[in-house]
Specification:
The chain is α+β, with helices and mostly antiparallel strands. Helices cover about 70% and strands about 10% of the residues. It folds into two domains: about 250 residues, Rhopdopsin 7-helix transmembrane proteins, CATH 1.20.1070; about 140 residues, Heat Shock Protein 90 (2-Layer Sandwich), CATH 3.30.565.10.
């Protein structure tokens, strides 16, 4: 094969590799590995240009022994060195990783320093007619072989990372590129031009041609093709893997939306159940309180009608009916207060909580301490209603489940938010197990949902045998006082 043709395809292989890698890097720039490949692209483009410069010198042999040849030759060696420094940078970047870039820069500096020292030595010791060849050989020994070795090692390390990530196709392509670079440096650059630089005096391109029957430049171009195909295929394999992951994320998002819809439906069902339960409770209390009162009134009026001729009995029965009416009114007031205490609008949140604490103590024997911190803020109707309901539900849970006779309520006004803590020192429970058990937890869920309606949050922490703490936070920026109450804190 014509050596000029070999040099042409040799340069084309490297230049094509650099150009293809550069294009693929732009499509996969989110990868740190892809960003490191820009260094490999620089190597391919510059090294391909170097081979074409060498081809140009072969095409024009009449330039030999001229200053033009000398200048072009020195420029060619400079291109060769720069290309291999890019290769060393690529390998060092892969080995050191993005976290240790300073280490890779130091390695590049050491390589460049060693090359410069040898360059000066050859300029001082080699005769002018052998100097360019010696510089070429020394550059390959000092930069190309280490650069190819570092690149092969770095690609193997990168392969292991992606094998661990389950990207086997990517690992195979990277392994092929690593082997190609290893052979390119270990064999292709070892057999350099004959010169006085050890060991090129006996291990050189002429020996390679005698042994294998084709020029070493052809071997280098073959390795360049294999490396380019491996790198490009690996990037495309990774893009395919990225598409799969995007599809997996899309499916996960769909499952999340489906689960969210299920939760919304479940929340709607629970809300309806809670409403029905509340209606049943109100109906039962109306029946127990007003029904009995009205029945007693009816019976009393019948008795008065029967004893119309007996004033003394009528007077006594009228007094009894007055007592029944008073008891009925008290029961009705308790029922109305339980639904929406009028104090909440008239006095504000803190006075209502203190009133409710006294009601709880009288009716259930639970001593509730209500305290506050910070400058009391004017709260909108919806905020104070929600906060009162949460405290009410929290104390109801203490009465039903805690097995204690003491609870604390703390209200904290802190700038643009209000926080409430309801704490007891009862038996406690496992919050996670209770919520996941499938048993109805209307009280707990109701507190969480009410806080969420106002853009806040409700956190419940509890341990068996220690007690329970309900913490609520509601922002106030979006819930300014609507003017429905003149009370501070209302």
């Amino acid at each position: 094969m014509d050596i000029i043709t070999v040099y042409f395809f040799y340069g084309l292989s490297f230049f094509s590799m650099g150009l293809a890698v550069l294009l693929e890097v732009d499509r996969s720039s989110e990868l740190d590995f892809a960003r490191a490949l820009r260094l490999l692209a620089g190597f391919g483009l510059i090294h391909g240009g170097h081979e074409w410069v060498e081809m140009f010198l072969l095409i024009h042999p009449n330039l030999q022994h001229t200053l033009v040849f000398q200048y072009i030759g020195e420029g060619r060696v400079a291109l060769l060195a720069v290309s291999f420094l890019f290769l060393i940078s690529f390998g060092a970047r892969l080995i050191a990783g993005p976290e240790r870039r300073r280490l890779s820069r130091r390695l590049i500096g050491v390589a460049a320093g060693v090359w410069m020292i040898g360059l000066v030595w050859l300029y001082l010791t080699e005769p002018a007619y052998d100097r360019l060849v010696a510089l070429d050989v020394y550059t390959r020994y000092s930069l190309a072989i280490p650069g190819a070795a570092l690149t092969a090692w770095g690609l193997i390390l990168q392969r292991q990372k992606f094998l661990q990530a389950g990207m086997k196709g990517y690992g195979r392509d990277v392994l092929a590129a690593a082997v190609a670079f290893g052979l390119y440096g270990g064999i292709g650059q070892l057999f350099a031009s004959p010169s006085n630089v050890f060991p090129s005096s006996f291990l050189n391109s002429e020996v390679f041609l005698d042994w294998f029957g084709f020029p070493v430049q052809l071997f280098r171009s073959m390795m360049a093709c294999v490396a380019a195909i491996g790198i490009i295929s690996s990037l495309r394999a990774f893009e395919e893997e990225t598409r799969r992951r995007i599809e997996s994320l899309r499916q996960a998002q769909q499952r999340g939306h489906k689960r969210l819809d299920e939760l919304r439906n479940e929340l709607l069902r629970r809300t309806v159940r809670a409403q029905e339960s509340e209606r049943q409770r109100i109906a039962q209390e109306l029946h127990d309180e007003l029904g009995q009162t009205l029945t007693a009134l009816g019976m009393g009026l019948s008795a008065i009608s029967s004893n119309a001729s007996k004033p003394e009995k009528v007077s006594a029965q009228a007094r009894q009916l007055q007592g029944v009416v008073r008891e009925g009114l008290a029961g009705l007031q308790n029922l109305v207060s339980g639904l929406h205490p009028p104090q909440l609008n008239d006095l504000g949140l803190l006075p209502t909580l203190r009133w409710y604490a006294e009601e709880v103590r009288e009716r259930f024997g639970l001593a509730v301490t209500v305290s506050s911190r910070g400058e009391e803020a004017a709260l909108a109707v919806d905020v104070r209603t929600v906060l009162f309901r949460i405290v009410q539900e929290g104390l109801t849970n203490v009465i039903r489940h805690a097995g204690t006779n003491k609870a604390d309520v703390l209200v904290v006004f802190d700038g643009d938010e209000v926080r409430i803590r309801v704490e007891d020192f009862g038996c406690g429970f496992n919050v996670e197990e209770t919520l996941q058990s499938g048993r109805p937890c209307w009280g707990v869920l109701g507190m969480i949902e009410r806080a969420a309606l106002l853009g806040g949050g409700c956190h419940i922490s509890s341990l068996p045998g220690v007690g329970t703490l309900v913490e609520v936070m509601v922002p106030l920026k979006e819930h300014k006082n609507d003017g429905n109450s003149s009370a501070v804190g209302g």
